[in-house]
Amino acid sequence: MNRRNDPNPFDEEEPEVNPFSNSAASKSRVPRVVANTLGFGQKHDATVDIPLDTMNDPRKKEKELSNWEADLSRREREIKRREDAVATAGVPVDNRNWPPFFPIIHHDIANEIPVHAQKLQYLAFASWLGIVLCLLFNIIAITVCWIRGGGVVIFFLAIIYALMGCPLSYVLWYRPLYNAMRTDSALKFGGFFLFYLIHIGFCILAAIAPPIVFHGRSLTGILAAIDVFSDHVSVGIFYLVGFALFCIESLLSLWVLQKVYTYFRGNK
C-alpha cells in the first residue's frame, strides 16, 4: 500500500523487542541496573576493617586475665557455699582420720586434692613427716647425751623443739599448702611460701648446730657432733645420724619448694 494514501502516516509497525534477546542494549542496561540497585562500585560503599594482629592485643590478654580471675572467684565462692551448706546440715567437714591408730587431724589427699597435684602434695607430706622424724630423733640423741652427763637443760630444749615444731609446721605451712592445692587460693600459697622458708632456715641451722644455745648440743648438727665425739663416741654417732636426717630434710624441703613454686607459676 502507498504510504502517501495511508490515513495514519505515523502508525508504523515497531520492531518487536525480544526481552530474552542478547542484544547489546540489554547487555549494557542490566549491569547498570544491578550496580545501581546493589551499590557495587560506588565511592560511598562501606568498608570492613579486619585487624591483622589480634593475637597480641594487650586488651584481649587483659580481658582473658579478668575472665580467669572471675572464674577463680566463682569457684572459691562455690566451695565456700558448699562448705557452709555441709556445716549447716551438721555434717563434719574436717573429720579426723589420720593417723589411723589415733586420729588427730583430717587428711585425705586422694579425695580432696586434684589428681594432677596429688603427687606434689604427697611429696610435701613426706617433708612434714621428715621434720617430725628429725625432731623426735633429736630428743633421743639429746636424751643419750643427757644420760652421759650432758646436762638436763639440753633435754628440755629438745622437748620444746619437738612440742613446738611438729604442730607449728603442720599449722603454718603444711595445712595452708593442703588448702591451697584444694582451692587454688593464691593467698594460701603465699602463706605457705613464707613459713616454708622459715622451716628451711631452721633445718639448715639444726644441721649445722652452731654453739649459740648451750654450746649447740640441743640440736644434733655437725658442730655439736664434733664437740661430743671428744667425750663419748657413742653419743657422737647419735649426733651424726641426727645431722644426716636434718641434711636430708633440708634437701627435700628445697626440692618441695622448687616444685610448688613451679606448680604455682604454671597455674597463674
Automatic annotation (TrEMBL):
GO cellular component terms attached to this protein's record: plasma membrane; transport vesicle membrane
UniProt membrane topology term: Multi-pass membrane protein
Subcellular location: Cell membrane; Cytoplasmic vesicle, Secretory vesicle membrane
InterPro entries: SCAMP
Principal place of residence: membrane
Residue ranges of the region described as Disordered: 1-28
Bilayer-spanning residue ranges: 122-147, 153-173, 193-213, 233-257
Keyword list, A-Z: Cell membrane, Cytoplasmic vesicle, Membrane, Transmembrane, Transmembrane helix, Transport
Taxonomy, superkingdom: Eukaryota
Purpose: Probably involved in membrane trafficking.
Recorded family membership: Belongs to the SCAMP family.
Full protein name: Secretory carrier-associated membrane protein
